[in-house]
Amino acid sequence: MGTANRELAGKRAVVTGSSSGIGRAIVLELAAAGADVVVHCRRSLAAAEAVAESVRGEHGAKAFLVQADLSDPQQCGRLVAEAWELLGGCDIWVNNAGADTLTGDAANWPFHQKLEALLATDVRATMLVARDVARRMRAASGGVILNMGWDQAETGMEGDSGQLFGTTKAAVMAFTKSLAVSFAPTVRVNCLAPGWIRTAWGERASESWQQRAVRETPLARWGTPEDVARVARFLCSDAAAFITGQVVRVNGGAV
Fold it and tell me: Which residues, 6+ apart, have CB-to-CB distance to 227 below 8 Å?
């Protein structure tokens, strides 16, 4: 397929929570840059396999599939071990998986249940997986880890969702900085902090939310999963070789 714009050729990448949304976009972007990938899902096997098929068919890269419920610490370890074996190592790991407490039955859960779900998947799983991966990368030839934060964790947002996501994503952002210091210079660790991104919730949000997202974004539009994926691609490449321990906002200029 040629070498132009294939800056990740020969690299091996894992993206958690990659059957849809931002995770799917990151998988496809990394594959477009030449990386072989592991697609991860909790239960959406058909959707995850469709992503893997897109990787193989559109980008000619290898794609594997691993299913694991990351709210279970034992399955966190299993995911890392299986992905490592499938790829024969790992150069890029993106911790994108997070609990969905905005749509489906979970939207009606009480506050404490939503908090428990977010702490288990967004915080604990990210920490356990990233530490495991970082140790393996340091023992091998190094690598890059990306975690997923939220821009309004730094500024605050009113309501239950603001309190829930602000608290849990701020924890991920703080953890990223400490992990980066712990594993430098062998492993680079950064965090993406998306703003108003039109994922499943955004597509179904009320008109008032649609207007708010545009109003609060200086670039006057919703972001897309692809907007986030392109930044992930850059941070995973050698072009970002002097960037670690950073929280990178992808939010259209929102303060």
Answer: 197, 250
Domain ranges of the chain: 12-250
The Cα–Cα gap between 41 and 154 comes to 29
The phi, psi pair for 122, rounded to 5°, reads -75, -35
Provide DSSP, 67-108. E--TTSHHHHHHHHHHHHHHHTS-SEEEE------SSGGGGG
CATH number, span 12-250: 3.40.50.720
Put simply, whether the predicted model's pTM sits higher than 0.85 gets the answer yes
CB contact at 8 A, 254 and 196: yes
Q: How far is CA 37 from the centre of its chain?
A: 14
Q: Report the distance separating Cα 232 and Cα 229, nearest Å.
A: 5
pLDDT digits (tens, 9 = 90+) for 139-149: 998 999 999 99
